[in-house]
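Usage

Read records sequentially. Each one opens with the input sequence:
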Amino acid sequence: MTIMILGLVVFLGVHSIRIVAEPWRQARIQQMGLMAWKGLYSVVALIGLVLVIWGYGQTRLDPVWVWQPPAALRHLTLLLMIPAMILLVAAYVPGNALKARLGHPMLLAVKVWALAHLLANGRLGDIILFVAFLVWAILAFRAARRREPAAGGGGRGAATVITVVLGLVLYGLFAGVLHAWLIGVPVMPGA
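and closes with the structure output:
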């Protein structure tokens, strides 16, 4: 569990620099240059992510159960992941109404993802992982909205339809195949 927590500190820490130390970040960018900053940021984030994945895998080998979630919460998680995937896609499709209205759909996707997975998982390692991401996403969203408030309205209809369709396709792929392949836990019955 220590490795996962260390990974969370590194990964979420580097992703929190804009929340807690924006002037320091700007000074480093001025000093190093934007590309060097992005390179260093990416390397540190990748190290943190590797530690999170490795440490999380270790927590699954000898799980500490805090509670046993009822089956109904697993179904609720499946439903909540639909808007989470659509919001995730909305962060990348230019001109969609979700991004125009919400401003930071990636952070909203992380919030929904973390909350949904907290409902369906009762192991201590799961709880630590998903609470860490949920708290970070809440704080990051608040900071991002202060920095760059959502424009509200706007967005093209076609881009929004593409966003929703791609989000649903991603949801289907992840629930049907990728979750079992990447995480080792099948989501759909019979998968």
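Summary fields computed downstream for this record:
- The CA atoms of residues 55 and 61 lie 10 Å apart.
- The two ends are 29 Å apart (CA to CA).
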